[in-house]
């Protein structure tokens, strides 16, 4: 199986190719089709098996589908991912930027220990995807 079998948007496939992904891992092969159909999924796999791409790719695809022919208001966050640690939040955000490189979506991280002022500034400017740790997210809310 290849990533093309998931019928992802060409811009997302370009991001996959640029990231050096060749074929989907088992966790990706099992979860991406289900998520694209709108099903809930819970996955468990070892580190390095592609879990992040398993949920980021369908998220980007659904965002591409809902953006077709529409002017998107960036003042509204379109996707929120909750991560337990700042390190994981940054890793997820790096994956989003890498896989979504050819899309027009932007993303940011929100966590404690970083400037809340700069985070608020970015949020006010507008962002599509937020990867946040719960404590700082609650502070901003």
**What class would the helix/strand composition place it in?**
mainly alpha
What is the first-to-last residue Cα distance?
A: 42 Å
Radius of gyration using CA atoms only: 15 Å
The DSSP helix count reads 6
Strand content: 5-15%
Helix content range of the residues, please? 40-55%
Shape: globular
Weakly predicted, low-confidence segments: none
Largest sheet: 3 strands, parallel
Average of the residue pLDDT scores: 93
Helix and strand run = HHHEHEHEH
Strands ordered across the widest β-sheet: 1-3-2
Question: What's the β-strand tally?
Answer: 3
In a nutshell, what does this entry contain?
The chain is mainly alpha-helical. It has helices spanning 10-18, 26-36, 51-67, 86-99, 116-125, 134-140, and strands at residues 79-82, 107-110, 129-132.
How would you portray this structure in words?
The chain is mainly alpha-helical and 141 residues long. 48% of the residues lie in helices and 9% in strands. The chain is built from six helices and three strands, in the order αααβαβαβα. It has helices spanning 10-18, 26-36, 51-67, 86-99, 116-125, 134-140; strands at residues 79-82, 107-110, 129-132. A three-stranded parallel beta sheet has the order 1-3-2, sandwiched between helices. β2, α5 and β3 (129-132) form a beta-alpha-beta unit. α2 runs parallel beside α3 and α3 (51-67) packs across α4. The longest helix has 17 residues, at 51-67. The relative contact order is 0.16.
């Amino acid at each position: 199986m290849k990533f093309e079998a998931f019928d992802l948007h060409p811009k997302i496939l370009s991001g996959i190719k640029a990231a050096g992904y060749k074929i989907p891992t088992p966790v990706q092969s099992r979860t991406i089709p289900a998520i694209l159909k709108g099903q809930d999924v819970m996955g468990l796999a070892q580190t390095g098996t592609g879990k992040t791409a398993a949920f980021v790719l369908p998220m980007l695809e659904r965002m591409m589908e809902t953006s077709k022919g529409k002017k998107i208001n960036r003042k509204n966050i379109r996707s929120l991912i909750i991560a337990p640690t700042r390190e994981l939040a940054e890793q997820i955000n790096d994956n989003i930027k890498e896989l979504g490189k050819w899309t027009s979506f932007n993303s940011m991280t929100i966590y404690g220990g970083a400037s809340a002022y700069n985070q608020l500034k970015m949020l006010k400017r507008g962002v599509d995807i937020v990867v946040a740790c719960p404590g700082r997210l609650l502070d901003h809310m």
